[in-house]
Design brief:
five-stranded antiparallel β-sheet, 8 strands, 2 domains, alpha+beta, disordered C terminus, three-stranded antiparallel β-sheet, Ribosomal Protein L22, Chain A, 25% helix
């Protein structure tokens, strides 16, 4: 992630995490698994906000389930089995961002067709033949999740899986200390932890581009044509991230194109 973005993460659910009444109301009837995901996600968010210099407070659920961040802050939450994370930034430095974590495993066969375009499936077939250790289908799914999380705060509109076409760009194998865990903070930074099936010290990271197939504008009226993002794979986990900054306001990794 670019230096303007602060993140926090957890691999277990710490006990005794405080929730505000507005947050408790969201999960009153939730099953235990959902309660733990939600609670630890808010815990990570407050850790990240504190590091950003923002006094943390309640993070209620807003439209389409997205958290309502403090004034002047943008952010994104993600969770999967064994991992929760939050990323935040000042709106003056990053206009929108999205992060997503997924298990590094193949998508179910009945899911792939619903989240990909024909051209994407053709590209996935080539990537899977050339680099079979990586689950490119799940990476593509995650990339679209990060794209949506970036798009929605800018437009307030839904973006379907068929409305963004993802292309994977250059990727690389990098050395990384054996046993090191993954970190959302390091998405896009050279060096990634080891991939299952790959000896310790060898792993992969890379970039992707998403072309938007529907029209949209950011809050300043700039047309949104696409996003660029980063990904990494790490010990059974994959992470993707997108950041967008309004054109003319400087640049950040994964900015809008």
């Amino acid at each position: 992630m670019p230096p303007q973005v602060i993140s926090a993460e957890a691999y277990t659910d710490p006990p005794g995490v405080f929730l505000y009444p507005e947050e408790e109301a969201v999960i009153t009837r939730a099953v235990d698994k959902r309660r733990r995901e939600f609670t630890t996600g808010r815990y990570c968010a407050r850790q990240a906000l504190t590091a950003l210099g923002v006094t943390p407070g309640p993070l209620p659920r807003g439209e389409r389930g997205a958290p309502v961040w403090p004034a002047g802050v943008v952010g994104s939450l993600t969770h999967c089995d064994g991992y929760r994370a939050a990323a935040v930034a000042h709106r003056s430095e990053v206009t929108s961002l999205g992060v997503d974590a997924e298990p590094h495993a193949r998508l179910p066969d009945d899911v792939l067709g619903g989240v990909t375009l024909p051209a994407e499936r053709d590209a996935l077939a080539v990537l899977e033949r050339r680099h079979p250790r990586l689950h490119w289908d799940r990476l593509l799914f995650s990339a679209k999740e990060s794209v949506y999380k970036t798009w929605f705060p800018l437009t307030g509109a839904w973006l379907g899986f068929e409305e963004a076409e993802v292309e994977f760009l250059a990727h690389r194998a990098d050395p990384w200390p054996a046993g090191h865990g993954p970190s959302v903070a390091d998405v896009g930074v050279p060096g990634v932890p080891s991939v299952p099936g790959v000896p310790d010290g060898a792993a992969y990271s890379g970039e992707f581009r998403a072309r938007l197939l529907r029209s949209g504008q950011d809050p300043d009226g700039h047309p949104l044509r696409g996003f660029e993002g980063r990904w990494r794979v790490a010990r059974g986990l994959l992470l993707t991230a997108v950041t967008y900054r309004t054109p003319g306001a400087g640049s950040t990794s994964g900015s809008g194109v």
